[in-house]
Every structure is written in C-alpha cells, then in structure tokens.
Please model this.
Amino acid sequence: MNYKKIALGALAYFISSFVIQGILGFAFAGEYFLSISILRIPPTAYLALPQAIVAGIAFAILYPITNFKGAPVLRGLKFGLLIGLMMVSFIALDLPARFVIPSVGTWILVQGILGILHFAIAGILIGLIYGRGTKEGSG
Model:
C-alpha cells in the first residue's frame, strides 16, 4: 500500500466533497436546503467531516485494486462514476424515501447532479494522484 497516495487521495476526496457538496451545493440550492426542516442548521460538522475523511480513505484504498483501462484521468473518471453510482443512488433516492423531504424531485435532481459531479471530480483527482501505475509499489 502506498500510504502517501492514500493520504493524497483522501485529501482530494475531502476537498472535492467540501467544494462541491458544501460550497457549490449551497450556492446552487441553498434556499432549498434551508427549507428542509429535518436538516440541522448549522450542520453538525464534527460528524460530517470525519465521514468525508473515512469515505476518502476508502475511496483512495479501493482505486488501485480496480482494473479500468485508459489514461489516468479516464480511469479515475470511470472509478469515480462507479463509486458515485452506489453512493449517489443512496443519497438521492433512499433518503427521501425515509424522511419527509419537500419536493422529492428537486432533492433527486440536486443530489444527483452534485453527487455525480463530486464523484467524477474526485475520481479524476485520484486517477491523477495514482498516475499510470495502480498496482502496489508502482507509479
């Protein structure tokens, strides 16, 4: 395991999560999020931040064991979209099925766009961090 690449990958995931899901999310749909009574305002950062770090570590550990073909950016994009397919479907579809979310269509659209964008960018970043070699001990 290349711990430096795992740390850099987790950091890239964390930063992309903060920028896309946090800043862009509130710029794009802040008023909508503020209208959801079940959401904490302000959010409990001491739970959200470690979740992004743990997810980022898992993201960075899983990448080198995949077998996607292509340049690092393309491999990273494919990986990010695969992980996003699993994670975004939960956030966009499962959460409004269990909680009272106003305008389910808006929730699915906003979370779908932000989630896919987040995982695509995080995937590209992880592809660039790992470069051409993804097997243990390689580039």
Observations:
- The mean pLDDT is 89.
